[in-house]
Amino acid sequence: MKTILIQHGTVLTLQNGVFVPKVADILVKNGKIVKIENEINHPVDDEIIDASGMIVMPGFVDTHRHLWETAFKGLAGNWTLMEYLNGVLGGIAPDFEPKDVYTGNLLGALEAINSGITTIFDWSHIMNSMEHAEAAIQALRDSGIRAKFGYGTPGTSVWEWFYESKLKHPLEAKTVRKKLLPSDEELVTMALAIRGPEYSTMEVTSHDILLGRELGLQVSMHIGGGAFGPRYNGVQKLFEAGLLEPDLNFAHANTISENDFKILANHNCSISVTPEVELQMGLGLPATGKAIKNRITCGLGVDVVTATSGNMFDQMKVALQAERAIQNEILYQKGEMPEKLTITDSDILKMATLGGAQTIGLADRTGSLEVGKQADIILIDTRNISIAPSVNPVSSVVLYAKENHVDTVMVGGKIVKRHGTLIYPHLQELMENARKSATRILNKKPVKVI
Questions:
Q1: Buried b (16+ CB within 10 A) or exposed e, 409-427
Q2: pTM confidence score
Q3: Fewer Cβ atoms within 10 A, N terminus or C terminus of the chain?
């Protein structure tokens, strides 16, 4: 693999939990970071990248996204959670063929890379057959992204598989683990995406969690979104059943109680916040501040591009300003004004990088720029009127940058975006395939777009 020297960039490294910018060089060998120094004098035969005027930082980590839905952008732009469940999981999902899953996953992964996301948790509840699983995994591999593939339930019937369903997680999970994703050292690794106690029975939940542990996998589930948290009290049920361990990840957690947050913190569980879709679909206010307050490992996710944008820049900004609004409103109700903001852009950037890597169990290899870690690196060009002049690089990333400012993306030392352009030869053909996929499925199962 190439030796790459990144020179003269403003490098963002974490010091005592805070991002500190400094002009430095980074040397990459065999896919890993081997040096970060003020000036590296090293003979490089392969490639030198001049990062002058650019922010050099760890790639973003998206901790929760349903990639298979990528071809249906805007379908759920005005939907609530129940409309989404009926229209997507209960509507179009049963008509997905393996080729549709491949197209959606590949396009979604490339979209993520284009915006600087180098690692993603693909929560894939479209496992209608083994062929669907194979297609999803192959698309992730073909994209070049680092991914955890969350093997989920079939999308053949939302009502058959969710809520009071007693159907246990498909045993094909063992086959996927053994034949398709046996190694935890590759770019694409496996996790289990289960329904959990608020979308199935405790008998099913216990079975699915124990299956994940038997296979040595992280287990992720939705919890505490909308009315489901107070109604079903999933965290308490898991606690009473003795099932809470650090391998459990929870998406959303908007409506769980203060005591639930403490329980999750005590068991070192993690939370994935998907702020944009949570605010739209009525899941509740994002749990960003509560997670930070309770020192819970926490990351950000896009969730569904059927309703929201697919980049981390929007999620960071929404998470930051929503939490500030929540805290300020508490003061306003007392007739007070804030003297100091309680959450910073550095807090959010950490959630989008190292916090995300910790959330999905990959912090040993990605999420921060450190010697010995995989070279998952992005360069953001600040020589643009939208950003320039960049006097605070962290604010530049969180509050000003967009995907078109991402100049270079590197995953495991391999450059997958260069000079603002994705390195994928058939992008136009892929986008046309996605259009045909969406048209065919919607013609077969018309869904009213509000």
A1: bbbbbbbbbeeeebebeee
A2: 0.96
A3: C
In contact, 30 and 1? CB cutoff 8 Å: yes
Residue-wise pLDDT tens digits, 316-326: 999 999 999 99
| Alpha-carbon span 400 to 406, nearest angstrom | 12
Structure tokens belonging to residue 286:
């994002």
- Rounded alpha-carbon distances, angstroms, from residue 341 to 294, 387, 400: 18, 23, 19
User: How far apart are the C-alpha atoms of 272 and 53, rounded to whole Å?
Assistant: 33
Q: CA quadruple 349, 287, 293, 359: dihedral positive or negative?
A: negative
> Do you know the residue count of the chain?
450
Alpha carbon distance 265, 249 (integer Å): 12
| Residues whose CB is less than 8 angstroms from the CB of residue 14 and which lie 6 or more positions away in sequence, other chains included | 20, 350, 354, 368
Contact between 381 and 54 (Cβ < 8 Å): yes
The pLDDT value given to residue 148: 98
- Residue 448 backbone class (left: φ over 0; alpha: ψ -120 to 50; beta: rest): beta
- Percent of the residues in the chain that have a pLDDT greater than 90, as a whole number: 86
Tokens linked to 247: 């391998």
Domain with CATH 2.30.40.10 in the chain: 3-58+367-419
Of the options 3.90.1150.10, 3.20.20.370, 3.20.20.140, 3.50.30.30, the CATH number for the domain spanning 60-358: 3.20.20.140
Residue spans in the chain of domains classed CATH 3.20.20.140: 60-358
CB-based contact 4:413 (threshold 8 Å): yes
Which of residues 251 and 225 earns the better pLDDT score? 251
> 201-221 pLDDT, tens per residue?
899 999 999 999 999 999 999
Closest CA to 290 of 319, 247, 318: 319
Residue 129 has pLDDT above 90, yes or no: yes
Can you identify the CATH homologous superfamily of domain 3-58+367-419? Urease, subunit C, domain 1 (2.30.40.10)
DSSP 20-75: EEEEEEEEEETTEEEEEESS-----SSEEEE-TTEEEEEPEEEEEE-GGGGGGTTT
Q: Average pLDDT of 352-374?
A: 98
Of 272, 274, 258, 208, residue with least CA distance to 238: 208
